[in-house]
Amino acid sequence: MADNCNYKIAKSENFDTCVDGSSCIKIDRLYSSSPSSIPVNTPESTTLDICRKLIAEMLGTAILIIVVMGSGIMAQTLSPNDVGLQLLENAVATCGGLIGLILMFGPVSGAHFNPIVSMVDYLHGDMQGRDFVLYTLCQITGGIIGALTTNIQFDLPQSISTKVRNKPNLWLGEVIGTITLLLVIHGCVRTGQKHAVPFAVGTWVCGGYFFTSSTIFANPAVTIARMFSNSFAGIDPYSVGQFICFQLLGGFIGYVAILFFYPVNYSVKKDDNLYLRICIQGSDHKV
Fold first, then answer.
1. DSSP string spanning 126-146?
2. Who's near 255: CB < 8 A, 6+ residues apart?
3. Which of 52, 56, 77, 99 is buried most, with the most CB atoms less than 10 Å from its CB?
């Protein structure tokens, strides 16, 4: 580059000039650690791009439910007299499924598959309100589709679960599970270790099957979907509302805990109008 050129970060909606009035060449967009936010008034803000993100969230949540419910049903079949072994089989399958799904869809939508994760991103300012609502709707819809598909796959009737989970110790388990899940995610992301998220989340949820009394639902979309399975993995409608209330409580506590433990976000923070440019002084445009 010519000696009279300076590197600058320009925050401006005018993509032809730098903040100091010199001519610029836009060379790259700075992305945050999560691609979940759907930009507005940018080249990426196309119908296809928006649909791609939302379909990824819907499909990813559907597959997650197939993994959770399907492995639970299979565990009941393979180990009918050993509940502990059933839980272990369910946990290991969920761990593998989560790792694969986050690696699969993380670069597309951020691989939330969980309204609580999306809510915390929104509270941090990493998602717009519109994105949060659309993500949540797609996650819930995908979860229900996944539950109905699992019933068909295992030749089970479409029914509502009768498995009651309404004890206070289970609610506490959901608060603990949700808080710790959020800390695992943001502990990786906000310290610049986002590459570890798939493995950290998968293994943590696997452990959560055993260290939480509720077997770590920690996800309203998954909770609603599991209502449509009268199996080992099911939950009755009355318990669903209670679980979601305590998941939301855990989500807000988790949000505060993230700000306390990780006050500095070492990942690159995106602004829709923040661009890295080569600002070239005068008329010399040599690079």
1. SS-HHHHHHHHHHHHHHHHHH
2. 120, 123, 124, 182
3. 56
Say if residue 30's pLDDT is above 50.
Answer: no
Per-residue model confidence as pLDDT tens digits over 35-56: 454 444 444 458 888 899 999 9
Bridge partner residues of 11 (DSSP): 274
In Å, how far are 44, 252, 267, 269 from 10, measured between CA atoms? 19, 34, 19, 14
Position 163 pLDDT exceeds 70: yes
Nearest by Cα to 209 from 81, 57, 67, 61: 67
Which residues are 274's β-sheet partners? 11
Query: Which residues lie below 8 Å from residue 37, measured CB to CB, with a gap of 6+?
Result: 121, 126, 127, 128, 131, 270, 272
Burial of 105-128, coded b for 16+ CB within 10 Å and e otherwise, reads bbebbbbbbbbbbbbbbbbbebbb
pLDDT for 266 equals 82
Place of tokens 């691609």: 35
Token reading at 265: 């976000």
Instruction: For residue 204, give the nearest of 223, 175, 183, 232 by alpha carbon.
Output: 183
Task: For residues 69 and 226, give the distance between their C-alpha atoms in angstroms, rounded to a whole number.
Answer: 7
Neighbour count for residue 271 (Cβ, 10 Å): 12
The pLDDT tens digits of the residues spanning 179-216 come to: 999 999 999 999 999 999 999 999 999 999 999 999 99
Burial of 53 from C-beta contacts in 10 A (0-12 / 13-18 / 19+): buried
Which residue from 147, 121, 120, 161 is spatially nearest to 61, judged by alpha carbons?
Answer: 147
Give the tens place of pLDDT for each residue, 9-26.
Answer: 343 344 444 444 444 444
